[in-house]
Protein 1
Amino acid sequence: MITLRATIKLHTAFGTPLVGDTLFGQLCWAAREQLGNEALAGLLEGYTSGKPWLVVSDGFPSGYLPKPTVPVGANSFAQANVKRADESAPTNAAQQRKAEKNKRWLPVGKAGIPLKEWMALAATDQQAFGAKPVEAPQPHNTINRHTGTTGNSEFAPYTQPQIFHARDQRIDLYLALDETRLSQEALIELLKAVGSHGFGRDASIGLGKFSVETVGANLFAQLAQNRSNEFEPTKTAYLTLAPCAPQGQGLNGDQSYWRVITRFGRHGNRHGISEKPFKNPVLLAATGAVFVPQEAYSERAYIGQGLGSDGQLSKTEPATVQQGYAPVIGIRMEG
């Protein structure tokens, strides 16, 4: 598989955070609509047995990666700088921890340096995005067609959260693609189709629209080559770029760090308006997990497993699968 970085430009607010497993689902629907049912079935062949055709990351501010989920403290991987030069900086430990917690992004160009040094370069939302995204409620109305008014009960006005980014915000996506099953050009067309229709909730009323600006191949290999003159890379762990199911992957649980999330999936497209639009919930390790292999570290494009099929996730669509894979980048845990 090859690893790609796609930079997209956002054009509207988003109703759903740009997460990899949701985007993978929409790309599958796009493949079904553009290429046909048989083509999608061919792409998904072997998906739940360790043979994904595509693995999609979350969306990150361009030029940044998520900060790893590791302990922070004096004797841990990340240690905050106690000495602050500016007067507006935190003056006690609690304020300092809060300030460090808000630094959620690491520069991708420095990936591969020792983790402590990399964590010291963490940036806030304001720094990474240029303007911090804002989540705000958006009023909605549902009209009773018999009375022509909103009325009460299920027709009462309600609000839904929307995520607003800066104008023409650039976002990076990382994709591991099996080119023997789908070409890079065809994948770009699928991304464009999703961006044109809209990503996530309320795409039908204009949310989640984006355009594809650039796609670059083998990003992390290029970064490693660019750094080869600076130091000898000694990677020891994997940093995940999307939620994943890491069970049975030969990972050392005692030395790894992750946060568990529950994904309450919902069908999209025509199944989204069916009588049973919801999928069975699944437990995943959140984006930014750090996994240490049991054996010696080796380069790989992704970790995790494909979930579902055979009615395990959905009775509405028994063939439904869930992306339990995540693109990964190698990191150096030692100081």
Protein 2
Amino acid sequence: MPAEWEPHAATWLAWPRYQEDWPGKFGPIPWVYTEIIRNLARYEPVELIVNDAAAERAVRKLLTRAAADLNNVRFHRWPTNRVWLRDSGCIFLTDPLADNPCRDSRPRLAKPGPASAAAAEPPLAAANFRFNAWAKYPNWRLDDKIGSLMAGTAKAAETRPLHNSTRVVLEGGSIDVNGLGTILTTEECLLSKVQQRNPGMSRKAYERMFGEYLGAPHTIWLGRGIFGDDTHGHVDDLTRFVSPTTVLTMVESNSKDVNHQPLRENLRRLRAARDQNGRPLTIVEIPMPGPVVFEKRRLPASYANFYIANQVVLAPVFNHPHDRTALNTLAELFPARQVIPIYSGDLVWGLGTMHCMTQQQPAV
């Protein structure tokens, strides 16, 4: 699994249609998506999933009004339940058998012919994990089909990761990689019995699976996620790799805030962690935004949910003084990319922002 900052062939998105993800506040959401697509399409193709032909016509009108480059947007008429492709979509992989420390135990994605096994493999692969709406919501069966459709369209060799002959449930937002063999995840999401994705699957089994299917045999386990996260601990609201040796992590200085202790414990774990070569990580801290509350509910607002695309970084902001700190820090970490703030105070009412809605297809 390549790191997110490596070159992309495209970004995959699904157009919002399920209004109950933003109950009572759906109005601005299509315009937020329009702004995101407008910025992405300047630098890489956008593969956009819409429900049907009527939805495509409506979306084209919105994108035209916003001066988005429609020549760089390709539509796919596939019905979905939700829009969070980071979790429901497949995870694209490159060079599945080359220079992989776990290649001898990794399942082959295609039967080799007379030529070498490596020559028989297509340059792009896709790990298509099962999706069950974070083991929480009933509407997921359409979304569980999306990964295969994405893989087929991208001409990627699809594999369905298994544990004890059962297809593994894993969301892309629950992991983050440095592209060299190290993966970040949380105990709360994968090992807790609350919203349990894979009953009976142990810590060691997850680590083997990361090595075999994602080429990431070295796991760094964080503890708990932020309050209000309905995924029960996704790491992409906490800590992200920004280079092979550097992580950006969220911190909360207010000792009375519900996120203070979990984030402090995660920071302690990061300081003790080592990468795949046994080296300590460089850690960059960013303060959490102040509490974002709507209808008396604390929402999972976090600057860590940014998305790295070709030449740009899309960063969620919340009209809080810490927005400036987050944007300046990202600009320092990605000097060759333009950092574009996307106001996400409305978007996060759907309990996700930039990273949750996107899925990158790496260039090969």
Protein 3
Amino acid sequence: MINVTILAFDFVLPVALMGIHDLLYFAGRAQSDNQGQRFNIRIASWDGRPVTTNNNLTLTPHCALQDIAHSDLYLVPTIGGEFERTLTQNPQVVEVLKAAGEDNSIIGSNGTGALFLAEAGLLDNRIATTHWTAETLFRERYPEVDLRSDQPLTHDGSIICDAGGVFWWDLGLYLIELFYDQATAANTAKLLMVDMDRVGQLSFSPLTNTKYHGDKTVLAIQSWIEEHQREAVAIDMLGKKFGLSSRSLIRRFKLATGLTPLNYLQAARIESAQRLLLRSNKTIEQVTNWVGYDDVSSFIRLFKRNTGLTPSSYRARYKSIRSQDSSL
């Protein structure tokens, strides 16, 4: 089983807490291989005491945080109350997250829950996102964080953040794909009547963050790059294919996505490598060649620069958790 701990604290937003809980729970009913629940989900608070949500509901957790020796995944729901007061009155959450970081657990946050991660120092020199209402405080209080508040979901190393609001759906479906498979994520969305277009954009969705724009030509170029990522791609060839000069292509592509076309190609190849590492037994050399690179050493350095882990470490961290259930 994959042990999941959802942190409960005073002034938590209850829909974010219970929403992610229910989404992960229903993955067990929607999974593609019919092998039973893989998430062991616990809502935990300090000393196991009931917490008061931001709208004055009382929520009783499953257990005390102190009773959890190890969790594969910790999730921090959004702060529904005043940010600084919530951080000040829940110092135990920060300490638990620090310990989880040292234990190499995967840690996710919904919206302003990322403030707890930043307070614990887990986001220093990492990419993260949060709800727009916390952006000013976040930048002032945590200048070492590479905050991307325009992105709905970020994944940097062992840290996954979403931008709040209904994006806990994205976070939950992303985790279901990561620890089950894409079909189970799609089935879960269908079961709970979530927009299926959202699920179609999962598949290690950091690249999805670059598709929230209205330039149809750039979207077409992005799709073409993803479909032909194993091939050698030249800017002048792309320009001719889509009726743009090389200079216009680069300018327009970067304006829409924040990346150059070649950066996008690189990111697409890294994401494909991530999937292969988790879902196949290919060697690192085979993965390198499959995604379009020839030099294994260069690919390893590139992969680590983009994910914070070597390919071997990435496979060990995520595939080992997926494999804890013998049915995986």
Protein 4
Amino acid sequence: MNQILTEMDGIGEKKNVFFIGATNRPEILDEALLRPGRLDSLIYIPLPDLEARISIFKAVTRKTPCAKNVSMQQLARLTEGFSGADIAEICQVAAKAAVRESIEAEARYKSAQELQGDEEVEMDYDPVPELKRKHFEEALKCARRSVAGDDL
């Protein structure tokens, strides 16, 4: 705490320097941080609304192939009260489920090839998995909100 206060006070009269801090626990901020000239403005940023959650899902999955049956609107409706970080975690868990499924499918494919010998093995195997609705459903089962109602 002393180090950050020293750094803030050491800036002096520089006009183009701003200190911005973020916390989800404003009640435990040290009063010295809130003195005029330091972090003297507090801005409440609420949890994302429906449209913001849709945008977060789209942003987090923009480089990830998603199946056509994945509805970002439905996912956003199911995540009322979730933060952006919570939504990102859901997407990560879904991606891990897709990768795990792909690895298992590859192992089955290779086993079937070994059993068949030279014969061509026909299997529905895609080495690049896409996120399917079932992956998100699996992720939502263990999803949790990081901001409790009392904290709001």
